[in-house]
Structures are given as C-alpha cells and as structure tokens.
Task: structure prediction
Amino acid sequence: MGVEALPRTIEWVPLDGADGVGGAMVRLVEQRALPARLEFWGVRSLDELIEAIQCLAVRGAPALGLAGAYGVCLAGVIALRDACSGGEAAASSLVAALEPQARRLAAARPTAVNLVWGVRQVMKVLRTASHRGDTARAALRAAIARAEGLAREDEEANRAIGAHGAALLPQGARVLTHCNAGSLACGFYGTALGVVYAAFEQGKLAHVYADETRPVGQGARLTMWELSRAGVPCTLQCDNMAASLMAAGQVDAVVVGADRIAANGDVANKVGTYPLAIAAAYHGVPFYVAAPTSTIDASLADGAGIPIEHRDAREVIDVDGFAPDVFNPAFDVTPAALIAGVVTERGVFQPAEVVRALEGR
Ligand code: MRU
Result:
C-alpha cells in the first residue's frame, strides 16, 4: 500500500553487466494493458521506442521527457556498435550519427515539450564530450549518466511538487483530477497525483474524483488503477459529471498536470482540462496546475503557439463499416486567467510569473 506499491514507469536496463554502453534496453510499463494487467515492454531500438510513444504505451509529459533522454542513449548504443568502431571513434562521429535520430524522436509527439527537452539534455552532453575530444564510448557513458540523473531528478521534483501542492489543500480535501498526471505519467510519484500522494501521506486527503478522460480513458484506466493500488480513496466519474459535482459542493480543489506551459501561464493539457477550469471558476473552486519546470516553454509567448496533437478518429468511435468525420485533438489550452497557481518543484507561482521558476536553472 502507498505510492511505493507502484512500479517504475520507465527505466534504463543495462544488458552488459555495467552501465549499458555495451548493450541496453528501455523497460517501460505497457500502459495499454492497464488496468487489466501490469505488463512491461523491453524496448531495444529507437524505432520501437517511437512506436511505444505514438501508441501511448508510454505517455504523460515527464515520462516522455525520460523516453527522449533514454531514446538518445539507446540509439547511441546501437550507433556505437554499428558505426563508431565499437566506441574507439571520436565522439563527433556519434553525434553526427545521432542528430537525425534525435530529431525523429523529438517529433514523435508534438505537444508535451518534455520530450524535446529530454532529447536536448542528452544531446547537449554528447556535444560537450565531442568538443572535449572524447571517444564515442566516453561520450555515450556521460550521456547515460545524464539520462539516469534526469530520472532521479524527476522523482525529486515530483516529491517537491507534492509537498508544495499539499500545502495548498485544506484538511480533509476532496480533489478532482483529469487524465493521468500520476506516477504512470512520470518516472515515479506523479505531478498532480504527487500532490494527492503527499496530502494522503499527511492525512490531509479525504477523496479523489478522477475524470474518465474521453476518448482514451487515462483517468478511468490509469489514474483509478494507480490510486487504487496506492490505497488512496477514489471515485471514477464521466467527464461530463465534473460541473455537477462542483455544484454539489463536493470538490475543494482541482489539480491537473500539464504538457506545455507558455510564458504567460497558458497551459496545454489533456483535452477536457479547459472546460473543467471554466466550471471550477464558475463554482469558486481553486484550479491548480502541477508540473515540473521542464514543462515550461519560455519561447512561446502564449498558448496560441502550442502545437496540439490530433489523433486517430478510431480513438473516438471504432465501429466496423462506420467512419464519420471526427475532430480529435488530444489536448486543449487553459487560459492563465483560470489558473489559481502553478505548482512546480521550485514552489507555487502565479501563472503570469511562471517563467520565474526557470531562473538559475
Ligand atoms: O496523451 P497523454 O496521455 O500523453 O496526455 C497526458 C496528459 O495530458 C497529462 O495530463 C500531462 O502529460 C501531465 S502528466 C504529469
């Protein structure tokens, strides 16, 4: 029981008895199998990882950041073997081999900025090693160390987000959440659900209401699975029940995650987040966004510039012989004005001031 009962969502698994430079896989929870079965997918190539990202076997912004970081390392292991004379070549040859693959990986899904961020963090280490004149092997070793470091930082950040967010909640809080911004969306612990887990550990949480999250059902399948496994009292509801629950006075706070936060505090998150924020504003329920600073995209002035992924019509309706025109954006943008606070690992910020969280990073 408790959050420690949850699996690691995505991990680097060395197969060479050392750090993985000589062979490795990325092990991830196969999220399409949940809640029926807890299965793992041992991913051994970049193409396989891109497939896992696009079919939502691994999803959620911070988990995608780790997938980006580990994906570059995985491609590096293969490049070292096939194109860099087993590692004795210069790091510059490894960087040259990985540049196009890194671009392909970063583009696997467009909305969560963490994917690009994770790719960039590791490519930066490889380029620095190349400028130093390192061998390809030494460069890859440094890259793997960086990716492993990002996984540790992910958990630390989530625990800090949890502590900052729990402090915002009243005793006996009833929290409503949307999609899955839990441990399954990160390396471990969760962002919005990190707040829930911290409040639960402090004896402050009474109940969580999880939106089903049409069309893919991340709330019904993933949030309910992980909250139940952690022993957190929770109830599932259809998305269209949220406003009525607020009207009945059953919700003390809404806490959601984010896929990208623009400089003015506009937030892209799972489709259905925006109407939830409108309902919360109408009913005077505080609406919080919980996300690590890696989700902030200071290069975008506002949410209008956030690329929104459109997905297959069959996620909405899948009936043989019936193929209506379907509008299926996977994310929407919540205006900063509807957000009471953005909870990051560096504290809680007013949306308009969220870029301050990046100072000194
Ligand atoms: O399409 P998904 O499942 O990747 O969408 C995930 C979300 O929208 C989450 O709420 C968001 O990534 C925050 S996860 C901590």
Summary: Residues 56, 59-62, 112, 179, 181, 185-186, 191, 218, 257-259, 269-270, 330 surround MRU (CB under 6 Å). The chain has nine helices and 14 strands.
